[in-house]
Amino acid sequence: MENGGAGTLQIRQVLLFFVLLGMSQAGSETGNFLVMEELQSGSFVGNLAKTLGLEVSELSSRGARVVSNDNKECLQLDTNTGDLLLSEMLDREELCGSNEPCVLYFQVLMKNPTQFLQIELQVRDINDHSPVFLEKEMLLEIPENSPVGAVFLLESAKDLDVGINAVKSYTINPNSHFHVKIRVNPDNRKYPELVLDKALDYEELPELSFILTALDGGSPPRSGTALVRVVVVDINDNSPEFEQAFYEVKILENSILGSLVVTVSAWDLDSGTNSELSYTFSHAAEDIRKTFEINQKSGDITLTAPLDFEAIESYSIIIQATDGGGLFGKSTVRIQVMDVNDNAPEITVSSITSPIPENTPETVVMVFRIRDRDSGDNGKMVCSIPEDIPFVLKSSVNNYYTLETERPLDRESRAEYNITITVTDLGTPRLKTEHNITLLISDVNDNAPAFTQTSYTLFLRENNSPALHIGSISATDRDSGTNAQVTYSLLRSQDPHLPLASLVSINTDNGHLFALRSLDYEALQGFEFRVGASDHGSPALSSEALVRVLVLDANDNSPFLVPRAAEPGYLVTKVVAVDGDSGQNAWLSYQLLKATEPGLFGVWAHNGEVRTARLLSERDAAKHRLVVLVKDNGEPPRSATATLHVLLVDGFSQPYLPLPEAAPAQAQADSLTVYLVVALASVSSLFLFSVLLFVAVRLCRRSRAAPVGRCSVPEGPFPGHLVDVSGTGTLSQSYQYEVCVTGGSRSNEFKFLKPIIPNFLPQSTGSEVEENPPFQNNLGF
């Protein structure tokens, strides 16, 4: 029978659960859910999306989750279906005690944007507890002269269930003297009273017993029993009476233990033992018995346990005064607990984001909730943060706050913030709570590399060795990490025809610049190009700077000597070029690109021979500069140039030649000065003229005595490169030739043609150019 009853009970509970579940779904607009207690973990509570009118996909995309006021994770949300499920078995009696209805409050937190939705979960009681009497045996002493209809208090049964499942009725065994009447106390709890139906006769029946049964309203009902023994005593015809039928007192929640709450007082008109009164609590709940104590003799009610206004705001106690004859009187004491500011505000963090990227305004850094368990002004709170930080607090529903950035942040100015959130209540004294967070700012690539100079000027002496370090550039980036890693590159030259890639290179990591090949001042005095510095951010940022390279001259060129008596077609020199390609790409042709006097010299296209084109005259300039162009037959064609310096002399024994590196005007001025000096010296001193003439005769004799195949060339710092190849061609090295022709010869035959390996002088990158050594002529001065 018991098993069958239990099965029926489970079926009814399941049916009731589905009925209540349907009711909760019907009220979806209010956000309320209903669930029976004692359901297993994972049981279905309701569909949150349908109840709140949301899309299921919205719950997942916005990171919806359920949070509670007391941080109890009783519910879990399936964001894929929108179903609310129990995460643990709920015990209504543990959650709410005797409070009815039992409602749990939750919030649904959704992001992007931040939104809070209020939901309520009502836990419905099931009949899972039986009524229990604290005393299994009750003893009543009733005077024999008690009138019919007299009422006697009985101890009530305790049932942890509420509502219809709480104690509903009391019954006793059928007898002719008593019946049970049910009363309701101020706490809305039912308690039994024993009513006398028939006068007692001590001599006939001094004692009788019966069973008191308490039944709850469950289906099926549960019950509890206790034994009641009635002892008939002799006459005591006056019941105690209290001075007040209702006592009301107020007490601070921080009152010390042992404090006197109130004193109740009653009197009895009887005498002797019948007038001796005893005070007790009647039908007091367990929390009352733990918190208060009454002195049975004096009626003093004292405090035995700490009070907590936030847990229980008031107590209602029935005081019973019983005389020695068993008669009693009753009074009610209502104790109102007064709140004091004894709870500091609480901060509960729901989410925090760190680090956050710079340059992003109105970014949610932290979501939190504040709470103060006090009431009135003691429970009112003010939330604040320091004013000198770029953050702002925004309030939301149910004391939820968001900490957001007020303006775009700059990591380069400040990479870390220590934020103190202060919550202060308005009680007396004021209590506050502080919560500290450290917020890191992550870098965004918002700073381009910056060069230390807008332009750089580098100096390089010609005839440098290849791969020579000529200088460095430098750029810095205020960002961090990969955003601050700088890579250097060559961008472009100011001259679109300048082959920059064959002249210089740059180290992409440190900005060192290197000359890739030897430079010739006579071909290239300087060049400009731009360099770039790029970081590794996304997207990458860059900047540019201008680099000027000035080539410093060295005395490395000697002129070609051509006698003025040379006939047309006289071979001056031969330009030789080499191309590393093959086939038609290596077919080379020569042409005269520039000349001091066009038409005086010519270049043979196929062999590079430089010859005179006509007879020389006294009117022709003494110094000539020829630029020979050689190009291949490729597509597109590539070319190189060579610069030749040619001096016209009357003979290889001419004692004076102008310096080739001096400008024509300067050379004429120097010659005039020499002539004036010589003239003045001749006029002023005949002796000096005789000496000069003697020296000239000696030189002429020496030239006549020279062997065939040799020529006398005046000493001097003539340019040494006879063929100068610029960087636009395929030749990677400058060459120097010396050409000598016998004076007065009518033949076009070469006497000798020999290459001279260039001597690389120590390179200098400074800004000063070394002066040429003083000119010395054959006169020995």
From TrEMBL:
Keyword NADP appears in the UniProt entry: no
Cross-referenced SMART domains: CA
BP-aspect Gene Ontology terms: homophilic cell adhesion via plasma membrane adhesion molecules; nervous system development
InterPro entries noted in UniProt: Cadherin-like_dom, Cadherin-like_sf, Cadherin_C, Cadherin_CS, Cadherin_N, Protocadherin/Cadherin-CA
Tree of life domain: Eukaryota
Domain Cadherin: 75-133, 134-242, 243-347, 348-451, 452-561, 562-657
Residue stretches spanning the membrane: 674-697
Coiled coil: none
One Pfam family linked to the record: Cadherin_C_2
GO molecular function, one term: calcium ion binding
Primary location: membrane
Membrane topology: Single-pass type I membrane protein
Subcellular location: Cell membrane
Keywords, sorted A to Z: Calcium, Cell adhesion, Cell membrane, Glycoprotein, Membrane, Repeat, Signal, Transmembrane, Transmembrane helix
Secretion signal, residue range per the UniProt entry: 1-26
Gene Ontology CC annotations of this record: plasma membrane
Functional description taken from the UniProt entry: Potential calcium-dependent cell-adhesion protein. May be involved in the establishment and maintenance of specific neuronal connections in the brain.
Protein name as catalogued: Protocadherin beta 12
Species: Pan paniscus (Pygmy chimpanzee)
Gene that specifies this protein: PCDHB12
